[in-house]
Design brief:
The chain folds into two domains: 2-141 and 300-335, Medium-chain alcohol dehydrogenases, catalytic domain (Quinone Oxidoreductase, Chain A, domain 1); 150-281, NAD(P)-binding Rossmann-like Domain (Rossmann fold), CATH 3.40.50.720. It contains eleven helices and 17 strands. The chain has helices spanning 38-45, 93-96, 137-140, 143-155, 171-182, 195-203, 216-223, 239-248, 269-274, 287-299, 316-324; strands spanning 2-8, 11-16, 26-35, 59-68, 80-83, 86-87, 107-108, 120-124, 128-130, 163-167, 187-192, 207-210, 229-234, 249-257, 278-281, 307-312, 331-335.
Length: 338
């Protein structure tokens, strides 16, 4: 099979690899589309735990072409599926209490094990989910980041009529904005420093500004009558977002941290104390979040408006470079079949 292989910092090689051989309770998937995630960019830069050579990529849709199991299973060859790429130890404190997504030894397909930038991929059977009727393979490739957004929004106590702010208008920020609005937010305000992303946010019905041109704190204050945002989602992982998040969040408001900061930022704990604010951490998603995301995608296909570009498998390296260069792209998919 053909695959895009991460060989080391800033190097992707298009290679011919052996077809994966199935072990018990595994399925072989013919990959249709695979999405490029921010984590893939960190891996490509050499700033992540992934050990080369490795086929990376953990967002995908495809079709089952082989199953090896003695269990009764609802799946069969030909089924259109997505995968949840998280792998749990099932032994630690978190796993035994039902919080498997924060497993002490959490690993992931496409990071620790061969991933989706290939024509075929094998995964454990319990990681596979059926694609709902009416959802295309292209749309379904968005399920993993959508599950992140679902987990983020439903980790908060968002109520109908709440004012929501989002720091960062990348794919995750824009998906959070759409999920928050569907969950009942009265208004969603979002900022970014990239004009293309700001424009896309406006196309999707969000109130968006470039925070290098307009002060986001003053913008939120003006639009909420001084009340500020009831719930703020941090989805940029920058020094700026850590500095302003407490200022744009209301008294007794919530701050949901979605980004994985590479370095611990400065954060105004005095504001958290004096204004009785709440900070909520989030990590990936649960099984239930995945199921909610699949239903949401079936009911609201407009969510996939964050997809802007599709590259061929042989051009995976070029696709990653285009995102790193800050070109006019949002969610980029790799088409894994000719």
């Amino acid at each position: 099979m053909k695959a895009a292989v991460y060989k080391g910092p800033c190097e992707i090689s298009f290679e011919e690899l052996a077809l994966p051989s199935l072990l018990d309770d595994e399925v072989l998937i013919k990959v249709a589309y695979a999405g490029i995630c921010g984590t893939d960019l960190h891996i490509f830069s050499g700033n992540y735990r992934t050990i080369p050579p490795m086929v990376i990529g953990h967002e995908l849709s495809g079709e089952i072409v082989d199953i090896k199991t003695k269990q009764n299973t609802k799946f069969k060859t030909g089924d259109r599926v997505v995968i949840r790429p998280t792998i749990y130890c099932n032994k630690c404190y978190a796993c035994l209490r039902g919080y498997k997504h924060v497993c002490k030894d959490l690993t992931m397909t496409g990071i620790d094990y061969p991933g989706a930038f290939a024509e075929y991929l094998k995964v454990p059977l319990d990681m596979v989910y059926q694609i709902p009727d009416g959802v295309s393979l292209k749309e379904a490739a968005l399920i993993e980041p959508l599950a992140v957004a679902v987990h983020s929004v439903f980790s908060s106590s968002l109520k109908i009529g709440d004012e929501v702010a989002i720091l960062g208008a990348g794919p995750i920020g824009l998906l959070i904005g759409q999920v928050a609005r569907l969950a009942g937010a009265a208004e969603v305000y979002i900022c970014d420093i990239n004009d293309f992303r700001v424009g896309k946010a406006r196309e999707l019905g969000l109130k968006a500004i470039n925070n290098q041109e307009i002060d986001f704190i003053e913008y939120i204050k003006r639009n909420t009558g001084g009340r500020m945002a009831d719930i703020t989602f941090e989805a940029a992982g920058s020094k700026y977002t850590a500095e302003v998040i407490t200022e744009i969040t209301s008294i007794r408001g919530q701050m949901v941290i979605v980004s994985a900061f590479r370095k611990a930022p400065e954060f105004n704990l005095l504001s958290v104390t004096f204004r009785e604010q709440t900070v909520i951490g989030t990590r990936v998603y649960s099984d239930e979040d995945y199921r909610k995301a699949l239903v949401l995608l079936q009911q609201h296909p407009e969510i996939t408006g964050v997809i802007t570009h599709i590259y061929s498998l042989k051009d995976t390296g070029k696709a990653i470079e285009a995102i790193r260069e800050g070109k006019d792209v949002l969610k980029v998919l790799i088409k894994c079949q000719e």
